[in-house]
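Case study: Digalactosyldiacylglycerol synthase 2, chloroplastic.
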Amino acid sequence: MMARKQKIAIFTTASLPWMTGTAVNPLFRAAYLAKDGARDVVLVIPWLSEKDQELVYPNKIVFTSPSQQENFVRQWLEERINFASNFSIRFYPGKFAIDKRSILPVGDITEIIPVEEAEIAVLEEPEHLTWYHHGQRWKTKFQRVIGVVHTNYLEYVRREKNGVVQAFLLKHVNNWVIYITCHKVIRLSGATQDLHRSIICNVHGVNPKFLEVGLVKRDQQQRHEPAFTKGAYYIGKMVWSKGYKELLQLLSKNQNELSGLEVDLYGNGEDSDEVRQSASKLKLAVRVHAGRDHADPLFHDYKVFINPSTTDVVCTTTAEALAMGKIVICANHPSNDFFKRFPNCHMYNNSKEFVELTQRALTEEPVSLTDEQRHQLSWESATERFVQAAELDLFMPEKTLPSPSPFMSLSYTDLSKTVEDTSAFLHNTISGIEVARRAFGAIPKSLQPDEQMCKELGLAGKI
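Here is what the predicted structure looks like once written out:
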Protein backbone atom coordinates (compact mmCIF):
# COMPACT_ATOMS: atom_id res chain seq x y z
CA MET A 1 0.00 0.00 0.00
CA MET A 2 1.18 3.52 -0.78
CA ALA A 3 2.16 5.63 2.22
CA ARG A 4 -0.21 8.47 2.99
CA LYS A 5 1.12 11.88 1.96
CA GLN A 6 1.14 14.82 4.35
CA LYS A 7 -0.79 17.83 3.08
CA ILE A 8 1.08 21.09 3.66
CA ALA A 9 -0.12 24.58 2.71
CA ILE A 10 2.54 27.32 2.89
CA PHE A 11 1.08 30.83 3.14
CA THR A 12 3.42 33.76 2.60
CA THR A 13 3.25 37.54 2.41
CA ALA A 14 4.98 38.27 -0.91
CA SER A 15 5.71 36.83 -4.32
CA LEU A 16 8.15 37.20 -7.17
CA PRO A 17 9.01 39.35 -8.99
CA TRP A 18 9.27 41.26 -5.71
CA MET A 19 12.74 40.11 -4.62
CA THR A 20 12.14 40.02 -0.91
CA GLY A 21 12.85 37.26 1.59
CA THR A 22 9.23 36.20 2.04
CA ALA A 23 8.86 35.81 -1.72
CA VAL A 24 12.02 33.78 -2.27
CA ASN A 25 12.49 31.61 0.82
CA PRO A 26 8.96 30.09 1.03
CA LEU A 27 9.24 29.32 -2.69
CA PHE A 28 12.39 27.28 -2.14
CA ARG A 29 10.84 25.71 0.98
CA ALA A 30 7.85 24.51 -1.04
CA ALA A 31 10.09 23.05 -3.75
CA TYR A 32 12.34 21.15 -1.36
CA LEU A 33 9.53 19.90 0.90
CA ALA A 34 7.82 18.44 -2.18
CA LYS A 35 11.03 17.14 -3.75
CA ASP A 36 10.90 13.55 -2.45
CA GLY A 37 7.20 13.12 -3.24
CA ALA A 38 6.27 12.31 0.37
CA ARG A 39 4.15 15.46 0.77
CA ASP A 40 1.45 17.28 -1.15
CA VAL A 41 2.60 20.90 -0.93
CA VAL A 42 0.68 24.04 -1.90
CA LEU A 43 2.32 27.46 -1.94
CA VAL A 44 -0.26 30.21 -1.33
CA ILE A 45 0.89 33.67 -2.44
CA PRO A 46 -0.79 37.09 -2.75
CA TRP A 47 -2.45 38.33 -5.91
CA LEU A 48 -2.46 42.11 -6.37
CA SER A 49 -4.53 44.43 -8.50
CA GLU A 50 -2.75 45.95 -11.50
CA LYS A 51 -2.46 49.26 -9.63
CA ASP A 52 -0.71 47.60 -6.68
CA GLN A 53 1.53 45.53 -8.95
CA GLU A 54 2.83 48.75 -10.47
CA LEU A 55 3.77 49.95 -6.98
CA VAL A 56 5.44 46.72 -5.87
CA TYR A 57 7.02 44.85 -8.75
CA PRO A 58 10.28 46.10 -10.34
CA ASN A 59 10.94 46.99 -13.98
CA LYS A 60 7.25 47.79 -14.58
CA ILE A 61 6.32 44.08 -14.55
CA VAL A 62 2.54 43.59 -14.50
CA PHE A 63 0.57 40.34 -14.77
CA THR A 64 -2.91 40.21 -16.25
CA SER A 65 -3.77 36.85 -14.69
CA PRO A 66 -2.65 34.62 -11.81
CA SER A 67 -1.59 31.92 -14.29
CA GLN A 68 0.77 34.37 -15.97
CA GLN A 69 2.40 35.19 -12.64
CA GLU A 70 2.61 31.50 -11.74
CA ASN A 71 4.49 30.84 -14.99
CA PHE A 72 6.93 33.63 -14.09
CA VAL A 73 7.49 32.21 -10.60
CA ARG A 74 8.03 28.66 -11.85
CA GLN A 75 10.42 29.72 -14.60
CA TRP A 76 12.50 31.72 -12.11
CA LEU A 77 12.65 28.71 -9.77
CA GLU A 78 13.45 26.15 -12.46
CA GLU A 79 16.44 28.22 -13.56
CA ARG A 80 17.88 27.78 -10.07
CA ILE A 81 17.13 24.17 -9.08
CA ASN A 82 18.04 20.93 -10.82
CA PHE A 83 14.79 19.02 -10.24
CA ALA A 84 11.13 19.33 -11.18
CA SER A 85 8.98 21.44 -8.87
CA ASN A 86 6.19 19.16 -7.68
CA PHE A 87 4.07 21.60 -5.70
CA SER A 88 0.95 23.61 -6.48
CA ILE A 89 0.58 27.38 -6.44
CA ARG A 90 -2.60 29.17 -5.40
CA PHE A 91 -3.34 32.85 -4.87
CA TYR A 92 -5.13 34.79 -2.16
CA PRO A 93 -6.44 38.36 -2.49
CA GLY A 94 -3.98 40.96 -1.27
CA LYS A 95 -3.54 44.72 -1.07
CA PHE A 96 -0.34 46.73 -0.82
CA ALA A 97 -0.09 48.99 2.24
CA ILE A 98 2.08 51.91 1.15
CA ASP A 99 2.77 53.07 4.72
CA LYS A 100 3.97 49.62 5.79
CA ARG A 101 5.64 48.73 2.47
CA SER A 102 3.90 45.39 2.85
CA ILE A 103 1.22 43.25 1.23
CA LEU A 104 -1.69 42.45 3.55
CA PRO A 105 -4.32 39.70 3.05
CA VAL A 106 -7.88 40.60 2.13
CA GLY A 107 -10.74 38.47 3.40
CA ASP A 108 -10.50 35.06 5.06
CA ILE A 109 -7.56 33.49 3.22
CA THR A 110 -7.98 30.13 5.00
CA GLU A 111 -10.77 29.54 2.46
CA ILE A 112 -8.19 29.16 -0.31
CA ILE A 113 -7.53 25.62 0.98
CA PRO A 114 -10.55 23.23 0.84
CA VAL A 115 -11.51 21.46 4.05
CA GLU A 116 -10.40 18.06 2.74
CA GLU A 117 -6.88 19.41 2.13
CA ALA A 118 -6.54 21.38 5.36
CA GLU A 119 -4.00 19.46 7.42
CA ILE A 120 -0.80 21.44 8.07
CA ALA A 121 -0.48 25.18 7.52
CA VAL A 122 2.89 26.96 7.47
CA LEU A 123 2.51 30.69 8.03
CA GLU A 124 5.55 32.57 6.78
CA GLU A 125 5.38 35.73 8.93
CA PRO A 126 2.46 34.56 11.11
CA GLU A 127 2.00 37.91 12.83
CA HIS A 128 1.83 39.71 9.49
CA LEU A 129 -0.73 37.24 8.12
CA THR A 130 -2.97 37.42 11.19
CA TRP A 131 -2.90 41.01 12.46
CA TYR A 132 -6.18 41.71 10.66
CA HIS A 133 -7.40 38.18 9.96
CA HIS A 134 -11.17 37.87 10.25
CA GLY A 135 -12.93 34.59 9.58
CA GLN A 136 -12.34 30.95 10.36
CA ARG A 137 -9.72 30.39 13.01
CA TRP A 138 -6.50 28.89 11.65
CA LYS A 139 -6.39 26.24 14.39
CA THR A 140 -9.96 25.24 13.59
CA LYS A 141 -9.35 24.92 9.86
CA PHE A 142 -5.93 23.20 10.12
CA GLN A 143 -4.85 20.43 12.46
CA ARG A 144 -1.38 21.90 12.88
CA VAL A 145 -0.22 25.47 12.29
CA ILE A 146 3.50 26.28 12.10
CA GLY A 147 4.66 29.89 12.18
CA VAL A 148 8.01 30.94 10.70
CA VAL A 149 9.07 34.39 11.94
CA HIS A 150 11.09 36.19 9.26
CA THR A 151 11.11 39.83 10.29
CA ASN A 152 12.29 41.86 13.25
CA TYR A 153 9.31 44.21 13.13
CA LEU A 154 10.09 45.71 16.53
CA GLU A 155 13.50 46.96 15.33
CA TYR A 156 11.95 48.66 12.30
CA VAL A 157 9.20 50.27 14.38
CA ARG A 158 11.68 51.58 16.97
CA ARG A 159 13.28 53.69 14.25
CA GLU A 160 10.00 55.50 13.51
CA LYS A 161 8.41 58.46 15.25
CA ASN A 162 7.24 57.45 18.75
CA GLY A 163 9.03 54.19 18.07
CA VAL A 164 9.42 53.07 21.68
CA VAL A 165 5.66 53.26 22.33
CA GLN A 166 4.81 51.65 18.98
CA ALA A 167 7.27 48.81 19.57
CA PHE A 168 5.80 48.15 23.03
CA LEU A 169 2.27 47.88 21.62
CA LEU A 170 3.35 45.83 18.60
CA LYS A 171 5.23 43.37 20.81
CA HIS A 172 2.05 42.52 22.69
CA VAL A 173 -0.10 42.41 19.55
CA ASN A 174 2.36 39.99 17.93
CA ASN A 175 2.36 37.78 21.03
CA TRP A 176 -1.44 37.81 21.05
CA VAL A 177 -2.12 36.89 17.42
CA ILE A 178 0.60 34.23 17.29
CA TYR A 179 -0.56 32.68 20.58
CA ILE A 180 -4.09 32.17 19.25
CA THR A 181 -2.93 31.08 15.79
CA CYS A 182 0.11 28.78 15.98
CA HIS A 183 0.80 25.41 17.57
CA LYS A 184 4.53 25.89 17.01
CA VAL A 185 6.68 28.90 16.12
CA ILE A 186 10.12 28.82 14.48
CA ARG A 187 12.21 31.96 14.96
CA LEU A 188 15.05 32.18 12.46
CA SER A 189 17.33 33.77 15.05
CA GLY A 190 17.40 35.36 18.48
CA ALA A 191 17.02 38.78 16.81
CA THR A 192 13.25 38.28 16.86
CA GLN A 193 11.06 38.82 19.89
CA ASP A 194 10.51 35.90 22.25
CA LEU A 195 7.20 34.22 21.47
CA HIS A 196 4.95 31.59 23.02
CA ARG A 197 5.67 28.01 21.85
CA SER A 198 8.75 29.14 19.91
CA ILE A 199 12.19 27.72 19.18
CA ILE A 200 15.17 29.28 17.41
CA CYS A 201 16.32 27.55 14.25
CA ASN A 202 17.52 28.90 10.91
CA VAL A 203 15.37 27.01 8.39
CA HIS A 204 16.57 28.93 5.33
CA GLY A 205 19.14 27.90 2.75
CA VAL A 206 20.76 29.58 -0.23
CA ASN A 207 19.97 29.46 -3.91
CA PRO A 208 22.01 26.50 -5.28
CA LYS A 209 23.65 28.84 -7.83
CA PHE A 210 25.69 30.45 -5.05
CA LEU A 211 27.07 27.10 -3.95
CA GLU A 212 28.06 26.40 -7.57
CA VAL A 213 30.01 29.66 -7.65
CA GLY A 214 31.71 28.62 -4.41
CA LEU A 215 32.83 25.34 -5.98
CA VAL A 216 34.35 27.18 -8.94
CA LYS A 217 36.24 29.48 -6.58
CA ARG A 218 37.45 26.53 -4.49
CA ASP A 219 38.80 24.85 -7.63
CA GLN A 220 40.59 28.06 -8.63
CA GLN A 221 42.19 28.32 -5.18
CA GLN A 222 43.31 24.69 -5.29
CA ARG A 223 44.96 25.37 -8.67
CA HIS A 224 46.62 28.44 -7.10
CA GLU A 225 44.83 30.72 -9.54
CA PRO A 226 43.60 34.21 -8.48
CA ALA A 227 40.02 33.47 -7.40
CA PHE A 228 39.13 36.90 -5.99
CA THR A 229 40.39 39.94 -7.86
CA LYS A 230 38.11 42.63 -6.39
CA GLY A 231 37.95 44.12 -2.91
CA ALA A 232 34.96 44.94 -0.69
CA TYR A 233 31.26 45.42 -1.40
CA TYR A 234 27.79 45.44 0.13
CA ILE A 235 24.44 44.66 -1.49
CA GLY A 236 21.01 45.27 -0.01
CA LYS A 237 17.84 47.30 -0.36
CA MET A 238 19.02 50.90 -0.26
CA VAL A 239 17.20 52.19 2.80
CA TRP A 240 19.01 53.46 5.87
CA SER A 241 17.60 50.71 8.11
CA LYS A 242 19.23 47.97 6.00
CA GLY A 243 22.73 48.69 7.31
CA TYR A 244 23.73 51.64 5.13
CA LYS A 245 23.59 54.06 8.05
CA GLU A 246 25.85 51.86 10.18
CA LEU A 247 28.26 51.19 7.31
CA LEU A 248 28.74 54.83 6.31
CA GLN A 249 29.16 55.80 9.97
CA LEU A 250 31.90 53.18 10.41
CA LEU A 251 33.66 54.29 7.25
CA SER A 252 33.37 57.98 8.15
CA LYS A 253 34.68 57.48 11.68
CA ASN A 254 37.68 55.44 10.53
CA GLN A 255 38.66 57.14 7.27
CA ASN A 256 42.28 57.62 8.29
CA GLU A 257 42.76 54.03 9.46
CA LEU A 258 41.06 52.68 6.33
CA SER A 259 42.91 54.98 3.92
CA GLY A 260 43.01 53.38 0.49
CA LEU A 261 39.94 51.19 1.07
CA GLU A 262 37.51 50.99 -1.83
CA VAL A 263 33.92 49.84 -1.29
CA ASP A 264 31.14 49.28 -3.84
CA LEU A 265 27.53 49.57 -2.69
CA TYR A 266 24.70 47.99 -4.72
CA GLY A 267 20.99 48.52 -4.16
CA ASN A 268 17.74 50.27 -5.03
CA GLY A 269 15.45 51.91 -2.53
CA GLU A 270 13.80 55.00 -1.16
CA ASP A 271 17.02 56.33 0.38
CA SER A 272 19.27 55.83 -2.67
CA ASP A 273 19.83 59.55 -3.28
CA GLU A 274 20.68 60.25 0.37
CA VAL A 275 23.04 57.27 0.54
CA ARG A 276 24.80 58.48 -2.62
CA GLN A 277 25.15 62.01 -1.22
CA SER A 278 26.55 60.76 2.10
CA ALA A 279 29.02 58.44 0.36
CA SER A 280 30.28 61.27 -1.85
CA LYS A 281 31.31 63.26 1.23
CA LEU A 282 33.78 60.61 2.40
CA LYS A 283 37.48 60.77 1.61
CA LEU A 284 37.35 57.02 0.89
CA ALA A 285 36.40 55.64 -2.51
CA VAL A 286 32.81 54.52 -1.84
CA ARG A 287 30.96 53.95 -5.09
CA VAL A 288 27.16 53.60 -5.22
CA HIS A 289 25.57 51.45 -7.93
CA ALA A 290 22.06 50.38 -8.88
CA GLY A 291 20.86 47.08 -7.44
CA ARG A 292 21.49 43.76 -9.14
CA ASP A 293 20.82 40.09 -8.51
CA HIS A 294 23.47 38.86 -6.08
CA ALA A 295 24.08 35.87 -8.39
CA ASP A 296 25.21 38.21 -11.18
CA PRO A 297 28.76 37.34 -12.37
CA LEU A 298 29.68 40.92 -11.46
CA PHE A 299 29.88 39.84 -7.80
CA HIS A 300 31.78 36.58 -8.21
CA ASP A 301 35.26 38.11 -7.96
CA TYR A 302 34.72 40.26 -4.87
CA LYS A 303 36.61 38.87 -1.89
CA VAL A 304 35.08 40.74 1.07
CA PHE A 305 31.38 41.25 1.85
CA ILE A 306 30.81 43.94 4.51
CA ASN A 307 27.40 43.77 6.16
CA PRO A 308 26.81 45.84 9.33
CA SER A 309 23.00 45.43 9.24
CA THR A 310 21.30 44.36 12.47
CA THR A 311 17.68 44.63 11.32
CA ASP A 312 17.64 41.34 9.40
CA VAL A 313 16.66 38.21 11.30
CA VAL A 314 19.05 36.06 9.25
CA CYS A 315 20.65 37.95 6.38
CA THR A 316 20.22 36.09 3.09
CA THR A 317 23.01 37.99 1.36
CA THR A 318 25.47 37.05 4.11
CA ALA A 319 24.66 33.37 3.59
CA GLU A 320 25.03 33.83 -0.18
CA ALA A 321 28.42 35.51 0.20
CA LEU A 322 29.67 32.69 2.41
CA ALA A 323 28.37 30.12 -0.09
CA MET A 324 30.39 31.85 -2.81
CA GLY A 325 33.52 31.44 -0.70
CA LYS A 326 33.92 35.09 0.33
CA ILE A 327 35.07 36.60 3.62
CA VAL A 328 32.20 38.27 5.50
CA ILE A 329 32.64 41.14 7.96
CA CYS A 330 29.51 41.55 10.12
CA ALA A 331 28.36 42.67 13.54
CA ASN A 332 28.42 40.32 16.52
CA HIS A 333 24.64 40.25 16.81
CA PRO A 334 21.99 37.53 17.40
CA SER A 335 20.92 37.80 13.75
CA ASN A 336 24.35 36.49 12.75
CA ASP A 337 24.69 33.64 15.28
CA PHE A 338 24.11 30.95 12.64
CA PHE A 339 27.13 32.18 10.68
CA LYS A 340 29.62 31.87 13.56
CA ARG A 341 30.33 28.26 12.55
CA PHE A 342 31.88 29.36 9.24
CA PRO A 343 35.62 30.21 9.23
CA ASN A 344 35.20 33.03 6.70
CA CYS A 345 32.72 34.92 8.89
CA HIS A 346 34.50 37.54 11.01
CA MET A 347 32.43 39.45 13.58
CA TYR A 348 33.24 42.76 15.22
CA ASN A 349 32.02 44.16 18.53
CA ASN A 350 33.15 47.75 18.07
CA SER A 351 34.61 50.23 15.59
CA LYS A 352 38.21 49.27 16.33
CA GLU A 353 37.54 45.58 15.62
CA PHE A 354 35.72 46.51 12.41
CA VAL A 355 38.85 48.27 11.15
CA GLU A 356 41.16 45.42 12.15
CA LEU A 357 39.00 42.72 10.57
CA THR A 358 38.50 44.69 7.36
CA GLN A 359 42.21 45.37 6.94
CA ARG A 360 43.07 41.73 7.58
CA ALA A 361 40.38 40.44 5.21
CA LEU A 362 41.79 42.47 2.34
CA THR A 363 45.23 40.88 2.77
CA GLU A 364 44.31 37.23 3.36
CA GLU A 365 42.66 34.53 1.28
CA PRO A 366 39.29 32.99 2.23
CA VAL A 367 39.28 29.48 3.68
CA SER A 368 37.73 26.90 1.34
CA LEU A 369 34.45 25.52 2.71
CA THR A 370 34.26 21.84 3.59
CA ASP A 371 31.50 19.68 2.10
CA GLU A 372 29.70 19.70 5.46
CA GLN A 373 29.85 23.50 5.69
CA ARG A 374 28.49 23.77 2.16
CA HIS A 375 25.67 21.38 3.10
CA GLN A 376 24.74 23.51 6.12
CA LEU A 377 24.15 26.46 3.79
CA SER A 378 22.04 24.43 1.35
CA TRP A 379 18.27 24.14 1.08
CA GLU A 380 18.58 20.38 1.61
CA SER A 381 19.98 21.06 5.08
CA ALA A 382 17.51 23.87 5.74
CA THR A 383 14.63 21.52 4.88
CA GLU A 384 15.99 18.87 7.24
CA ARG A 385 16.13 21.48 10.00
CA PHE A 386 12.59 22.65 9.20
CA VAL A 387 11.12 19.13 9.28
CA GLN A 388 12.77 18.53 12.65
CA ALA A 389 11.89 21.92 14.17
CA ALA A 390 8.27 21.72 12.98
CA GLU A 391 8.09 18.07 14.13
CA LEU A 392 6.53 17.09 10.81
CA ASP A 393 7.75 13.51 11.09
CA LEU A 394 5.95 13.20 14.44
CA PHE A 395 2.66 14.65 13.22
CA MET A 396 -0.30 12.30 12.94
CA PRO A 397 -3.74 13.45 11.75
CA GLU A 398 -6.06 13.81 14.69
CA LYS A 399 -9.31 11.95 15.17
CA THR A 400 -12.27 13.76 16.63
CA LEU A 401 -12.55 12.88 20.29
CA PRO A 402 -15.74 13.07 22.36
CA SER A 403 -16.16 16.21 24.39
CA PRO A 404 -15.48 15.82 28.11
CA SER A 405 -18.42 15.61 30.42
CA PRO A 406 -19.52 19.01 31.72
CA PHE A 407 -19.38 17.54 35.22
CA MET A 408 -15.70 16.70 34.92
CA SER A 409 -13.35 19.11 36.66
CA LEU A 410 -11.40 21.42 34.38
CA SER A 411 -7.72 20.56 34.08
CA TYR A 412 -5.01 23.19 33.57
CA THR A 413 -4.95 22.26 29.88
CA ASP A 414 -8.71 22.73 29.59
CA LEU A 415 -8.49 26.10 31.34
CA SER A 416 -5.62 27.22 29.12
CA LYS A 417 -7.59 26.23 26.02
CA THR A 418 -10.64 28.12 27.28
CA VAL A 419 -8.55 31.26 27.76
CA GLU A 420 -7.05 30.85 24.30
CA ASP A 421 -10.45 30.28 22.67
CA THR A 422 -11.86 33.35 24.40
CA SER A 423 -8.90 35.41 23.24
CA ALA A 424 -9.38 34.17 19.67
CA PHE A 425 -13.08 35.08 19.82
CA LEU A 426 -12.18 38.59 20.99
CA HIS A 427 -9.67 39.05 18.16
CA ASN A 428 -12.18 37.81 15.60
CA THR A 429 -14.81 40.21 16.90
CA ILE A 430 -12.50 43.25 16.83
CA SER A 431 -11.08 42.36 13.41
CA GLY A 432 -14.61 42.31 11.98
CA ILE A 433 -15.31 45.95 12.86
CA GLU A 434 -14.17 48.38 10.17
CA VAL A 435 -13.55 51.26 12.60
CA ALA A 436 -11.43 49.07 14.86
CA ARG A 437 -9.48 47.68 11.90
CA ARG A 438 -8.70 51.17 10.66
CA ALA A 439 -7.63 52.25 14.16
CA PHE A 440 -5.06 49.44 14.22
CA GLY A 441 -3.73 50.26 10.76
CA ALA A 442 -5.62 47.93 8.43
CA ILE A 443 -6.17 48.90 4.80
CA PRO A 444 -9.66 50.38 4.29
CA LYS A 445 -12.25 47.94 2.90
CA SER A 446 -10.00 44.90 3.29
CA LEU A 447 -12.57 42.71 5.04
CA GLN A 448 -13.59 41.28 1.68
CA PRO A 449 -12.05 41.31 -1.82
CA ASP A 450 -13.87 43.43 -4.37
CA GLU A 451 -15.71 42.00 -7.37
CA GLN A 452 -12.82 42.60 -9.76
CA MET A 453 -10.38 40.65 -7.62
CA CYS A 454 -12.87 37.81 -7.15
CA LYS A 455 -13.24 37.68 -10.92
CA GLU A 456 -9.47 37.64 -11.50
CA LEU A 457 -9.01 34.84 -8.97
CA GLY A 458 -12.01 32.86 -10.14
CA LEU A 459 -13.66 32.99 -6.74
CA ALA A 460 -17.31 32.03 -6.70
CA GLY A 461 -18.02 34.77 -4.20
CA LYS A 462 -16.26 36.98 -1.79
CA ILE A 463 -14.13 35.17 0.79
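For the exam, be able to explain this: The first strand starts at residue 6 and ends at 11.
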